[in-house]
Amino acid sequence: MIEKRFAKRIPSSRPALLLFDNRTVYAIMTDFSRHGIGLISDEPLPKDKRIEIHFDIANQNTLKPFQFKAEVKHCISWHSGNHIGVRLDFPSESYLELYELLAVA
User: Fold this and answer.
1) What is the per-residue pLDDT across 42-101, written as a single tens digit (0 to 9) for each?
2) β partners of residue 100
3) Which of 25, 30, 91, 104 is most exposed by smallest CB count within 10 Å?
4) Which of 101, 102, 73, 104 is nearest to 89 (CA)?
5) Antiparallel, parallel or unpaired: β 10-11 and 23-32
6) For residue 35, what is the DSSP state?
C-alpha cells in the first residue's frame, strides 16, 4: 500500500466527539496531521459523511480545544470497533501552529 499523506502524523489517545444527524458519538483519536484525524469508534460512519468534530490537544500541561467540520474519508472495521479517517475542512491557524510545533518535537 502506498502512503498518500505528506504531513507527519502525530500519535494521540485523546477523546473526541463526533456530531452528525442530531447524534453525538464518542471516539478516541489515534493520530492527527495537518488536515486529518484518525479515530476509533464503536459507531461506523459512511464514507463522505459530513460531521462536526470536537477534540482537544495537550501541549505543555495545557489542553487546547478545537472544533471543525470534517468529511469521513474512510471507515474500516477494526477489532471490536471502527477506524475512521476524517479530513478537516478548514484547520484554524491555532491548530496548524500547534501541529507544526508538535511535528518538529
Assistant:
1) 999 999 999 999 999 988 888 899 999 999 999 999 888 999 999 999 999 999 999 998
2) none
3) 104
4) 73
5) antiparallel
6) S
Burial class of residue 11 (count of CB atoms within 10 Å of its CB; 0-12, 13-18, 19+)? exposed
State the Cα–Cα distance between residues 49 and 74, nearest whole angstrom: 10
Cα–Cα distances in angstroms (integers) from residue 93 to residues 35, 37, 77, in the given order: 12, 16, 33
Please count the CA atoms within 13 angstroms of the CA of 99 that sit on its side-chain side.
Answer: 18
| Cell output for 25 | 458519538
What are the cell numbers at 86?
A: 476524517
